[in-house]
Write a structure and sequence with these properties.
- This protein is α/β, with parallel strands linked by helices.
- The chain has helices at residues 3-12, 29-43, 54-62, 100-108, 140-149, 186-195; strands at residues 20-23, 48-51, 76-81, 85-86, 92-93, 110-118, 131-135, 154-156, 172-176, 199-202, 204-205, 211-215, 221-223.
- The strands form 3 sheets. The chain has a 6-stranded mixed β-sheet with strand order 2-1-3-6-12-13, with helices on both faces. Strands 8-9-7-10 form a 4-stranded antiparallel β-sheet. Strands 4-5-11 form a 3-stranded antiparallel β-sheet, with no helix packed on it.
- α1 crosses α2 (29-43).
- It is globular.
- The chain starts with a helix and ends with a strand.
- The model has no long low-confidence stretch (mean pLDDT 98).
- Bound molecules: ribulose-5-phosphate.
- Ribulose-5-phosphate is lined by residues 24-29, 81-84, 94-100, 103.
């Protein structure tokens, strides 16, 4: 079993009958969704899923997981999602899979958030992983210029075919290649990004996570 599978299966043990469950996006969350699908089929687990991307929606429908949109539920009991980096003070960068907008909406409506990662995602400071910013296409060149002027080394994310990548909401992603974001500067950066017109959402997920499940060695480590 690989580390992503290990943490996905471990996270699924936090899911119990009757829960409304936020289903994350990415290659680690994939295993959580598979395990929930298995438990529904084999153990009669009864849950309602709220997906965070079209990709996860497709996977969940294939597994016959009952789904509702975030607007059809009163709240989400628990959301399990991956992360691109988690700092020593448990702040995160997400959005490597371009799903940060729905992921943040679902996470911020969840009573509990669990992140599942392999140990390579645990870092001292954020920023080695480029920080994804979701922007509306109109005015995106102006935002690129603004980020460039600030020395944030922005790059518009492209697809494998060299097209501009479009998110599930038809927006673009600008990745900020900052190399490092000192822990005491993270909130300041998030607040500034929040003020920019045309920025829909950014990949700094701050003060959101309750539990981190880390895949390492032969068994997962859970930090609450
Ligand atoms: C998608 C995300 C993912 O959770 C993040 O990129 C981690 O993905 P993976 O588990 O494939 O490494 O934020 O937008």
């Amino acid at each position: 079993m690989n580390l992503k599978q290990m943490v996905g299966i471990e996270a699924a043990t936090h899911v119990t009958d009757g829960m409304i469950v936020g289903l994350g996006t990415g290659s680690t969350a994939y295993y959580l969704v598979e395990e929930i699908g298995r438990r529904i089929a084999e153990e009669g687990l009864s849950i309602t899923g709220v997906t965070t991307s079209k990709a996860t929606e497709k996977q969940a429908l294939g597994l016959n997981i009952p789904l509702k949109s975030i607007d059809e539920v009163p709240y989400v009991d628990i959301t399990v999602d991956g992360a691109d980096e988690i700092s020593s003070d448990y702040q995160g960068i997400k959005g490597g899979g371009a799903a940060l907008l729905f992921e943040k909406i679902v996470a911020s409506n969840s009573k509990k958030n669990i992140w599942i990662v392999d140990e390579s995602k645990m870092v001292e400071t954020l920023g080695k992983f480029p920080l994804p910013i979701e922007v509306i296409p109109y005015g995106s060149q102006q935002l690129l210029k603004k980020f460039e002027e600030k020395g944030l080394n922005p790059k518009l994310r492209l697809t494998a075919d060299n097209e501009r990548l479009k998110t599930d909401s038809d927006n673009y992603i600008i990745d900020l290649h900052m190399e490092t974001i000192p822990n005491n500067k993270v909130k300041q950066l998030a607040s500034w990004l929040d003020t920019l017109t045309g920025v829909v959402e950014h990949g700094l997920f701050l003060d959101i996570v309750d539990t981190v499940i880390i895949g390492k060695g032969t068994s997962p480590e859970t930090i609450n």
